[in-house]
Amino acid sequence: MKFVDEATISVQAGNGGHGCLSFRREKFIEFGGPDGGDGGDGGSVYVQAVPGINTLIDYRFAKTFKAKSGQGGMGRLRKGKSAEDLVLPVPVGTKVVENETGELIADLNAVGQRACVAQGGYHGLGNARFKSSTNQSPRKITQGQPGEARTLQLALHLLADVGLVGLPNAGKSTLIRSVSAAKPKVADYPFTTLYPQLGVVKLGAYQSFVMADIPGLIEGAAEGHGLGIRFLKHLSRTAILLHVVDVASADGSDPAEAFRQVESELAKYDDDLVNKPRFLVLNKMDLVPETEREVLKAAIVRNLGWEGEVFAISAVSGEGTKALCSALMQQIKL
Description:
Layout: E1 6-12, E2 45-49, H1 58-61, E3 64-66, E4 86-90, E5 94-98, E6 104-108, E7 114-118, E8 149-156, E9 162-165, H2 172-179, E10 197-204, E11 207-213, H3 228-231, E12 240-246, H4 255-269, H5 271-275, E13 278-283, H6 290-304, E14 310-312, H7 321-333
Parallel strand pairs: 1-3, 2-4, 9-11, 9-12, 12-13, 13-14
Antiparallel strand pairs: 1-8, 2-7, 5-6, 5-8, 10-11
Helix pairs in contact: 4-6
């Protein structure tokens, strides 16, 4: 299934049914009183977060959604039938924004949470409502109100405890394959991961967390270069960021410089991302001779002035990943 995390849709609530203008007419009752009934309410449009949906692809092609209008009132004081509400299912983590004003209408981050995005029109009143001591035969009715119409932006922000960031080919996909059941594509060329991948890391009974693999960032990602700009928003809900650095890059690039490049893009996009708890993960240690590993680790930490948690791992062999996941679980509990 193609991953779609943004969609623009138009919603139209139903109109209220008009009130009825009617008088009682039966045999031997020539001048009966008014008996026009009220109309029914128009259906409203709701957006509801439901389980089992992971993408907004259903709204990529079907873009217009209309609720039905209420039925008009009838004689003999019969009220028109109100229309059913229209409920649009979306993934948990979807934000609903009014397209023209940019107003945040709803942030649906829990299963079952719903929000009304277009209110149905109120019903009209029949002429029986206007009978009084001074007006026994009213010819006044009111028409049903029109339903709201809106254009909405749907934006999915993935719900994950841990987010992986780093340059392309840093080994993020290999890491999430190693510690979870997720199976993202892995290859030796950049941008193998074209959309976010989620994996559940299970450490024991009632001990698990969700990890998100975000497509690799490049210089200028915050301005729209590469794929990163499309998916940086998914990091906003994560509790911890894992900054994955390739310590044995094929082009011989400096690991510290790779770290700074990604950190700069995070800061440009949102300062809050840089202020989140972060672990530094030095990956591909299996390609470094054992006698040089500690020296390399110390040099990178010193060069960066890093004071947080540091883990030297090999995502391919699994070396160091167990300690990393245990530390993540403890941090999430905090």
